[in-house]
Write a structure and sequence with these properties.
alpha/beta; Rossmann fold; three-stranded parallel sheet; 10 helices; globular; binds guanine
């Protein structure tokens, strides 16, 4: 079988063009420019690249952005103080704290401090709860939201299919599985989540109609772990250091071998990666619009 390559770069460009158009309209018609604060703590080289890409995407989409680079030794109290300021800042509609945070910072208490209405990452328990309940007013984490958008725009149906998610992180695995479980189009799947303690992984992954790999181990998914005709979504972005050469990116899937059996597959790079940023822009626009709806509702309530 020769697999269709799902072009994340092209699909992300479509999403970004729609966001850019809607941001322009929001500015022209309502005088509001969506704003995103991006917080980076420490010197993680991959995080620095991601954060730079996010602020550049804001510029292209017409979204105002503010970047905060805090040194690795920043205390939890200092990070929480910055989040509190941003929670109250009117021109900031979305707040992103780049993960992973350096030790000993506690990601849970820091993510939980972001106002859920500005949590464009979808990491806050309120937003994860809304996702679990199918409440569309919440924010969905950008990478899994991007995977759904890829499937939708590539015309890959999920209803009744067996979707196997490899990985159970707060950023990808858990929200990904919840999205696939929702009722409706490009959801309605039968879902299995696997993780590092799952037994006999290949037996489970071979049952997948759609396999979503987000385990963070380069080329872990091999051809003997999938069935003919599977759709494979590779979320992995692993940097491989080779002596004397520039580091290379590798996904969680052995692309060449698995593509020979798959009906469709995402490449790395150029698959899921660009979608994460596109969905971040889309979530920031949604946060700015939600504020508008709320202020429109206030006078009516006051008049009761
Ligand atoms: N690190 C890797 N992916 C993400 C993401 O989607 N959001 C944040 N905040 N950090 C990340």
């Amino acid at each position: 079988m020769s697999a269709k390559i799902i072009d994340g770069k092209k699909i992300a460009a479509e999403v970004l063009a729609e966001v850019e158009r809607d941001v322009r309209r929001l500015k022209e018609e309502r005088g509001i420019q969506p704003g995103l604060a991006v917080v980076l703590v420490g010197e993680n080289p991959a995080s620095r690249v991601y954060v730079r890409n996010k602020t550049q995407a804001c510029e292209r989409a017409g979204i105002f952005s503010q970047q905060y680079n805090l040194p690795a030794g920043t205390s939890e109290a200092e990070v929480l103080e910055l989040i509190d300021t941003l929670n109250h800042q009117e021109n900031i509609h979305g707040i992103l704290i780049q993960s992973p945070l350096p030790e000993p910072l506690d990601e849970d208490s820091i993510f939980n401090a972001v106002d859920p209405r500005k949590d464009v990452d979808g990491f806050h328990p309120v937003n994860l709860g809304k996702l679990a309940l199918g409440d569309p007013t919440g924010f969905v984490a950008c990478t899994p939201a991007g995977v759904v958008e890829l499937l939708r725009r590539a015309g890959i149906e999920t209803a009744g299919k067996h979707v196997v998610v490899l990985g159970r992180s707060r950023i990808v695995g858990k929200p990904m599985a919840l999205l696939m479980l929702l009722k409706g189009k490009f959801a309605d799947a039968t879902v299995t989540i696997c993780h590092s303690k799952s037994r006999d992984l290949p037996r489970i992954t071979r049952q997948a109609d759609i396999l979503i790999a987000a385990i963070g181990r380069p080329r872990m998914v091999q051809a003997d772990m999938v069935k003919e005709g599977v759709v494979v979504i590779d979320v992995g972005i692993n940097r491989e250091e080779t002596a004397g050469e520039k580091s290379k990116l590798a996904g969680d899937v052995d692309f060449e071998a698995v593509a020979a059996k798959a009906s469709a597959i995402t490449p790395v790079p150029g698959g899921v990666g660009p979608m994460t940023i596109a969905m971040l822009m889309s979530n920031t626009l949604k946060a700015a619009r939600a504020l508008l709806k709320k202020s429109a509702a206030t006078p009516a309530r006051a008049g009761l």
